[in-house]
Amino acid sequence: MVISGKELAAELKGKMAEQVAGFEEKYGRVPHLVVILVGEDPGSVSYVTGKAKASAEVGIKNTTIRRPDTISEEELLGIIDDLNNDDGVDGILVQLPLPKHMDSDKVIAAIRYDKDVDGFHPANTAALWLKQPCVKPCTPKGIIELLKKANVEISGKNAVVIGRSNIVGLPVAKLLLDENATVTVAHSRTKNLGEVTSKADILIVAIGRPMFVKGDMVKEGAVVIDVGVNRNPETGKLCGDVDFAACVDKASVITPVPGGVGPMTICCLMQNTIECFLNKMNKK
Ligand code: GUN
């Protein structure tokens, strides 16, 4: 079974649009998401455009602030500070990666944790690992929603995550653990990777290497979630970290690229923006 993140995201965005339609009357305004894009990395430009499009579909107000990659870190921190103090802004997202002269950790930590719709702020990360209320990172949250939609039983299963990034690998490992999976995090130094992945009932691949996972690395009947977004070096077409053609017949459930995890990430960003908005409104 190939699970379409695109379809599930469309369904969830439809439900959110209905919810947001009532906000103007109830709260006097709709949620406002501000996305900051520094530079013109083509991948980042495409993500930011996708986020603006999804916001429009759901009825969320979206402002995209674009700055050249020559701006100073101080200037960026100044923009964040203004947005932190603006009561009309509910969510702040700084598109990553940032130019090399900036300290991403410092920039992320400068965002108010209760406007951190990415769930990357140290306070949200700590709360996630302590199983306390928090904004959850979008891609991991989207992956769990996809698994649930596909009726994949997670509890008691062997889950292997390839990749240990703060954005995907580590938080998805924690969310799988919270769903009672037995979790292994594999990475570039893992020995006998194929042996490790062959034991996975659920295999999450987030390494950023085109078509890295081949059929012989996948257990018969496994659930394979491909987080990769790469260009095929030969064809130039978008492809994942999983060699889809080689794995599709072995997997019981697999996600395509494009149209799998990507749309769910953006969908969860919309959910997080609504969540931050409602937390604020219900506090007043
Ligand atoms: N760059 C790649 N993925 C992400 C993401 O989820 N959030 C942000 N802000 N930047 C990214």
Bound molecules: guanine
CATH class identity of the largest domain: Alpha Beta
Strand order of the largest sheet: 5-4-6-7-10
Give the ordered list of helices and strands.
Answer: HHEHEHEHHHEHEHEEEEHEH
Shape: globular
Strand content: 5-15%
Structural class: alpha/beta
- Indicate the radius of gyration in whole angstroms: 19 Å
Number of domains: 2
CATH topology of the largest domain: Rossmann fold
Distance between the termini: 46 Å
Largest sheet: 5 strands, parallel
Total of DSSP H or I helical runs spanning 4+ residues: 11
Averaged pLDDT? 98
Q: What can you see in these coordinates?
A:
This protein has 284 residues and is an alpha/beta fold. The protein has helices at residues 5-21, 23-27, 42-58, 73-85, 104-110, 122-129, 138-149, 169-178, 193-197, 244-247, 261-283; strands at 32-38, 61-67, 91-94, 158-162, 182-186, 202-205, 223-226, 230-231, 238-239, 253-254. The chain has eleven helices and ten strands. The strands form three sheets. A five-stranded parallel sheet has the order 5-4-6-7-10. Helix 3 crosses helix 11 (261-283) and helix 7 (138-149) crosses helix 11. The N and C termini lie far apart (46 Å). Guanine (GUN) binds next to strand 3 and helix 7.
